[in-house]
Amino acid sequence: MKKATTRLALAAACMVAGLGALPVQAKVVTGDIGKLEVAQVAQCKSANLTLSIQPSGEEGIAGTEFSLAKLADIDLSTQVGWDAVGELDAAKAAQARTEGTWRATTDAAGDARFHDLPVGAYLVSATVPAHGRNATPQDFVLTLPVGSESGWDCSPKVFAKMDTPPESTPAQPPAESTPPRPPYPPFNPPTLRPEPTPTPTPTPTQTPTRPSEPTAPATTPPQSGTSQRPGLASTGASVLGIVGIAAVLILAGALLARRKRDADQPGQEGR
């Protein structure tokens, strides 16, 4: 009963596409294993795998590198191994112990091919090129071989599922329409600034006044070629001028009087 339940759970983890191509719909890809016998896995000595990226719009598909890390201690030829795979996801597989890694890069058609892989469970991850056009495939766990309607498929082709941005959830309106409360302004404590100290205005210094000294009279420098004599008072000079003029007039009057007297006595000269 446990064996059948485990197989049905693993078979429900993915969908089978035509021509052996499996689109990744779950975190663990095993194919349709509900009617298959675990012991028949041994018929696949090795496995070939094609990981494919379907073009979508303007996304690039060439240059994506797929990496396959084989999970250790999982034997798919036993039911215990399949039970261990059923408890895995990509996050748990990333923490598990591995035993070998294989890499391949997608071509212009979006296909990355692997050859001669050991039978087992693998963690599949991808690295996109640096040009930024390629979408990033999701990490997942893959078993080789995978189940199909015709038996165990030792050369499957698996289409990788791309990461999509999470859809934004619209915000739920509040139960009661209350007017929004205005935000309180942040409290900023006042900054205390020191008051400027007034600078005292300097008082002008009183300079003691000295008694005025007598000013010496300005002296006119002597002119060249003229002897300097002490000048007479203006009154004395005027008196001398008047006396001189009077003396000249007296002398002139005496001369005129003598001439007239001589003219009046002409006969006295012959006596």
UniProtKB/TrEMBL annotation:
InterPro entries linked: Ig-like_fold (IPR013783)
BP GO annotations: carbohydrate metabolic process
Entry keyword set: Membrane, Signal, Transmembrane, Transmembrane helix
Superkingdom: Bacteria
Composition-biased stretches (Low complexity): 206-227
TM annotation in the entry: 237-257
Signal peptide coordinates: 1-26
Residue spans of biased composition, Pro residues class: 167-205
Region (Disordered): 155-234
Gene3D superfamilies in UniProt: Immunoglobulins
Official protein name in the record: LPXTG cell wall anchor domain-containing protein
Organism (species): Corynebacterium lizhenjunii
